[in-house]
Amino acid sequence: MLVVTLTVSTWSLAPARPAAAQESDQLTDSPAVSLPEEIFGGSGTKDDPPVNIDAVSVYAAERGLVGVAVFDRRTGTYDDNGAAAHSPMGSASVIKVLMAEEILHRAAMGQIQLGPTEYASIETMLVDSNDPAASSLYSQFGGVALIMAALTRHGMTESSAPADPQYWGNTKISAHDIAVFYNSMLAGSLPAESREYLLDLLRRTAPVASDGFGQIFGLAGGDPTLNVAVKQGWMCCLDGVRNVHSTAVLGDQNRYVVIILTQYSPDLPWEHGLTTTTELAQLVLDQLEV
Description:
It contains 9 helices and 7 strands; from the N terminus they run ααβββααααβααβββα. By secondary structure, it is of the alpha+beta class. It has a single domain, classed as 3-Layer(aba) Sandwich (Beta-lactamase). It has a 5-stranded antiparallel β-sheet, sandwiched between helices. A two-stranded antiparallel sheet has the order 3-4.
């Protein structure tokens, strides 16, 4: 079995918070957001895939329901491991980055005002994966409507808001859709200042989350030159399964989007998901031009 040791760097200073836009037309110079079908649709995206997906698919098939998606933004090529990458799973804390992006989008458009309290909540929600901070922001900015707005705006057609609006972590997502989301954000769904603020928070992922769960697995850490901005997720037991996820933007100029979502029996320990995401991350990273 492949054993991977990962480390993570943390910053002592928080990134500068973006200034709130006063009028919505301040976004007019942002690059257009590509539609999901333009990015990932059609056989052309498979002509020169960023990785050889075969080894990834073989390993993933032995580990439960595992969705893997890889997008090379420089070449415009995308690949995934088939049906599993398009299968909705419980989002756990991965949904926090969508919530943060939607809130920052509204602030940039001048629809809402964010103060020190809101920025502090966004920061601890992402860096420490803090659930109370996420719940506070979720309630303040519309609850399930906040998630529905993000899914709609990014064209995430394989994902859905939680059936019980109380539980933001029960949002259903697919690996493909999270790749669509990250690319949409990088392509211009946020103005540059807000986008870099959010990515900088993801680069500061704390080694241990607020709930005591270690976050250094999967795509987190590793070679510091990879410039990894990561959001992890873990949850048990929506629909009688355990979920461990690792999602990231990495490489020079945020070249790659890599998504690894896992779902398996709760009879297996957390270590099963941690090992799965970490070994898959290594299989993918070994093939990327980083």
